[in-house]
Amino acid sequence: MGGLLKEFREFAMRGNVLDLAVGIILGAAFGSIVNSLVNDVIMPPIGLLLGGVDFSNLYINLSGGEYASLAAAREAGASVIAYGAFLNTIINFIIVAFAVFLLVKGFNEAQKRGKKQEEAKPAEPAKPEPMLVATQELTEAVKKLTSTMQK
User: Fold this and answer.
1) 37: domain CATH number?
2) Can you tell me the distance from the alpha carbon of 59 to that of 65, in angstroms, rounded to the nearest whole number?
3) Using an 8 Å Cβ cutoff, are 80 and 61 in contact?
4) What is the pLDDT of residues 77-135, one digit of tens each?
5) Structural domains in the chain (count)
6) What are phi and psi of 54, to 5 degrees?
């Protein structure tokens, strides 16, 4: 059991797991911002243009009773299809998907620029190992010495 806990702790403390946790937290915060944008900024003017419609209150009552609002129908336990809330959720999704698309597009373009810069750099000649250089110099010196001794 102790080995399993140790292995889990090592897994949980990896950098990529922590990065994922931060991403999820930021994503949730971004989702809240998008919800507010849709519900408080985008949908009210659209509803006003369509004759004062409150999209969050649009529903189809399946139970046959009359209710003043979606909240009243739900409170009474009526079966409803809340298509106004569904429309808001679709708009939220479109905004988030577009933001993720822009993020991925920017990341891909940055990667392409990085690859182009790497390809444009001339390759530096490889530096020989110091020990190899010393051995080659010693070999040359020995060759010169033996050639002068043979003369």
Assistant:
1) 1.10.1200.120
2) 13
3) yes
4) 999 999 988 988 888 888 888 888 888 898 889 888 888 777 777 767 777 777 777 77
5) 1
6) -100, 105
pLDDT value of position 123: 66
> Token match 């922590």: residue?
18
- Overall size of the chain counted in residues: 151
Distance CA 73, CA 66 (A): 8
**Integer Cα distance of 1 and 14 in angstroms:** 20
Name residue 31's amino acid: G
How many angstroms from the chain centroid is the CA of residue 107?
Answer: 10
Structural domain harbouring 40: 2-143
Distance CA 91, CA 140 (A): 77
Please give the model's pTM, rounded to 2 decimal places: 0.55
Quick: pLDDT tens for 49-62: 888 887 888 899 99
CA distance from start to end of the chain = 80
- The pair of structure tokens assigned to 140 is 């040359």
